[in-house]
């Protein structure tokens, strides 16, 4: 059996077993998710919330931005509180103070430590006991807890509507007045907040651990890290060290120094540019425009952290609240990166065969129009949803679904899925004749198609939840999209495309590239598929999910230890021959991808992945550190690099402005690292200390986040953000000025035309 065949067998075995386990525990999550009650009643039979109110309340929360306004169970935005941690702490203090006044005639804070400890123990018995009746679907709560619910409803009503006493706090949280305009809707959202918080403090049947594995940390109610958190954290670190050792040994054993005869001239200059390949140019233009728009909304979103209801004095929140700017910032980041990659695929597929199948150009143009409609339509729908101009059903279909990274309405999701399958068809058609010819590139092309098919297929996981699906189940499927689609098969696609480009440039042997891609894919997916569970430790899932997530998320980091070798190899290739200098900046982008893969995905990712770390860090700015450095550093830089490869082929006779590209490249990367090191990371680490010492409620509170030192750290972000934004503007300027650049000397242009002929 050849090495290629062995690796293909390993690929199918790994993916089959991993998805079987992922599916099995998905079924477990369906069975053991926090129950959605038919109603919530008091011990005297008074109805506090109807079950439908809680379900509708989830939709109300989604309609105002959902995870783009604070977070639930630690998933979402960082400016406002985590509503479950906030509700839990406020409810606890309210009950403790009532009891303290009844029993001692003074406030809870004035009691001795012994008296406080006695009341806290009583509180834990009150809140942690599971009073859900499976036969009737009813949750029963005490009179005093019902009073706490009414008190909290009044507080949140004032916050999300227009209590003038909460204006300053509302500004700190970047929540506009009347974010919820209807009192019925507000009551329903309070019901959802109650249920989501109930799951964080209520013990599972037959267990002393809550549905969210004692998250958030809150000493008052006994929410403390369990032994499982510590055990699986230790195991994950041991496994990481073992995996690194095995990987280094295997790499040293398998490393081969091969000599490749470098082409005298650029092989890509010999390829024919078909009409459909030329039509890809407008994709790159729209990507550039989307980059500018995304950066603009990023600036606005970051500024809301210091001026929650305005933008340098202008009351922007009335027409563009934080939840909208953050939604568009996150969504456009995904869309422009994906479009850059889709465009690269559309360019590469016909380039392999040298011809367009019938109607290929029409398909490329039609897909482009569809993408424009999806981007514009989803953004308009999200604005209308958050401004409360849609009903709850209409909002689900055309407005804002409220789930981070999958915010667009269901109609736009389906539309995008159809577009991805159209893209897949446009990729397959030109490659079929090449695959039938049994070329030496067959295995590499097959991997290219497998990764392309996965990109189209795994986005469909976003359709697996409904309008009122249990949040624990919706989170399970959402992370299929975010982790498996974005972090998983996009990574495979990136590996394949990078290797394929080097093969086409004549810098890498086809067999070497194929073996490298297959091995990298097998290693990455070995940890990557089941590593999805590390996002679900505290989302109402069984304990086994934590064990699997901790184990396999550690394995995700293992292949990244060799990233320095990959970066060096790419850098070495950039010096391999004289003509390769034309590809200096595309290759440097791949070097940057390797750097950010190690730092952003590896170091910053592993900081928050172990269970005990994530227990205190989930929902803090440490997550934003990983998100920015991994999403933009890895996928964004790769998108820019792929664009430059395509542009180099399209603009063959233009003299490139290398000084502008150099300025852009270094500004983007320096700006990103400064953004993280000067601002986001220090804030996240300080929040972590606060979370450990006081609790999640405090780490996300205005009391902590509005201290002068924290305000200074937020303003320091301007340094990195400005350098970063200027670098991206320079890149966009480079793209749009290519048509006006002077061309090569006439004799060189004639020589190039002769080569093409």
TrEMBL record:
Keywords: Membrane, Transmembrane, Transmembrane helix. The chain crosses the membrane at residues 7-27, 229-250, 283-306, 328-350, 362-384, 411-432, 444-465, 477-503, 515-538, 544-565, 585-608, 628-651, 663-686, 715-738. This is Nitric oxide reductase subunit B. SUPFAM superfamilies: Cytochrome c oxidase subunit I-like. Residues 37-217 form the Nitric oxide reductase subunit B cytochrome c-like domain. One of its GO terms (molecular function) is cytochrome-c oxidase activity. GO terms for biological process: aerobic respiration. The keyword Manganese does not apply. GO terms for cellular component: membrane. InterPro entries: Cyt_c_oxase-like_su1_sf, Cyt_C_Oxase_1, NorB_cytochrome_c-like.
């Amino acid at each position: 059996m050849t090495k290629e065949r062995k690796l293909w067998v390993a690929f199918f075995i790994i993916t089959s077993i991993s998805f079987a386990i992922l599916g099995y525990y998905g079924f477990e999550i369906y069975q053991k998710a926090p129950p959605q009650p038919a109603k919530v009643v008091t011990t005297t039979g008074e109805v506090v919330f109807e079950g439908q109110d809680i379900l509708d309340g989830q939709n109300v929360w989604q309609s105002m931005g959902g995870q783009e306004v604070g977070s639930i169970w630690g998933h979402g935005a960082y400016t406002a509180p985590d509503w479950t941690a906030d509700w839990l702490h406020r409810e606890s203090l309210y009950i403790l103070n009532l009891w303290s006044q009844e029993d001692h005639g003074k406030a809870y804070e004035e009691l001795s430590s012994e008296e406080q400890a006695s009341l806290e123990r009583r509180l834990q018995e009150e809140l942690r006991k599971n009073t859900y009746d499976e036969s009737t679907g009813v949750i029963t709560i005490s009179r005093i807890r019902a009073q706490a619910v009414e008190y909290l409803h009044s507080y949140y009503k004032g916050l999300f509507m227009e209590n003038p006493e909460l204006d300053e706090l509302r500004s700190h949280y970047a929540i506009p007045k009347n974010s919820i305009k209807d009192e019925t809707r507000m009551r329903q959202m309070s019901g959802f907040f109650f249920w989501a918080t109930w799951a964080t403090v209520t013990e599972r049947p037959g267990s002393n651990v809550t549905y969210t594995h004692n998250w958030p940390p809150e000493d008052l109610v006994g929410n403390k890290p369990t032994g499982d958190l510590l055990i699986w954290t230790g195991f994950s670190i041991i496994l990481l060290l073992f995996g690194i050792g095995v990987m280094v040994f295997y790499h040293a054993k398998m490393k081969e120094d091969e000599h490749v005869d470098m082409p005298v001239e650029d092989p890509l200059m010999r390829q024919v540019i078909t009409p459909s390949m030329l039509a890809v140019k407008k994709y790159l233009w729209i990507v550039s425009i989307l980059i500018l728009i995304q950066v603009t909304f990023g600036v606005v979103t970051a500024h809301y952290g210091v001026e929650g209801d305005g933008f340098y004095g202008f009351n922007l929140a009335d027409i563009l609240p934080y939840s909208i700017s953050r939604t568009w910032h996150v969504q456009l980041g995904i869309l422009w990166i994906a479009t850059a990659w889709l465009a690269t695929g559309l360019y590469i597929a016909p380039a392999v065969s040298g011809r367009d199948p019938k109607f290929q150009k029409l398909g490329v143009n039609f897909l482009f129009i569809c993408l424009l409609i999806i981007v514009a339509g989803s953004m308009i729908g999200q604005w209308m949803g958050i401004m409360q101009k849609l009903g709850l059903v209409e909002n689900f279909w055309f407005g804002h679904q409220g789930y981070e990274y999958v915010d667009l309405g269901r109609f736009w999701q389906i539309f995008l899925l159809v577009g991805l399958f159209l893209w897949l068809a446009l990729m397959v058609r030109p490659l079929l004749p090449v695959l039938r010819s049994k070329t030496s590139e067959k295995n590499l092309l097959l991997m290219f198609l497998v990764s392309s098919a996965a990109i189209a297929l795994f986005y469909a996981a976003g359709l697996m939840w409904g309008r009122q699906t249990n949040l624990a189940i919706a989170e399970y499927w959402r992370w299929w999209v975010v982790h498996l689609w974005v972090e998983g098969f996009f990574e495979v696609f990136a590996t394949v495309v990078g290797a394929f480009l080097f093969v086409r440039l004549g810098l890498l042997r086809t067999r070497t590239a194929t073996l490298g891609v297959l091995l990298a894919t097998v290693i990455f997916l070995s940890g990557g598929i089941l590593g999805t569970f590390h996002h679900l430790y505290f989302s109402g899932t069984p304990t086994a999910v934590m064990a699997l997530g901790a184990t396999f998320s550690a394995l995700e980091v293992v292949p990244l230890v060799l990233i320095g070798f990959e970066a060096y190899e790419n850098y070495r290739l950039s010096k391999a021959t004289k003509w390769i200098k034309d590809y200096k900046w595309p290759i440097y982008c791949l070097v940057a991808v390797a750097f950010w893969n190690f730092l952003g995905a590896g170091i910053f990712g592993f900081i928050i992945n172990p269970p005990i770390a994530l227990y205190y860090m989930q929902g803090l700015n440490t997550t934003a550190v990983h998100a920015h450095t991994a999403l933009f550093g890895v996928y964004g830089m790769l998108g820019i690099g792929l664009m430059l490869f395509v542009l180099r082929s399209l603009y063959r006779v233009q003299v490139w402005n290398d000084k502008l590209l150099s300025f852009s490249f270094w500004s983007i990367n320096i700006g990103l690292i400064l953004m993280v090191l000067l601002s986001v990371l220090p804030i996240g680490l300080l929040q972590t200390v606060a979370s450990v010492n006081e609790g999640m409620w405090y780490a996300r509170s205005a009391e902590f986040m509005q201290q002068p030192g924290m305000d200074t750290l937020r303003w320091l972000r301007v340094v990195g953000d400005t350098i970063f934004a200027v670098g991206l503007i320079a890149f966009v300027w480079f793209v749009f000025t290519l048509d006006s650049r002077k061309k090569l000397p006439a004799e060189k242009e004639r020589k190039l035309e002769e080569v093409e002929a």
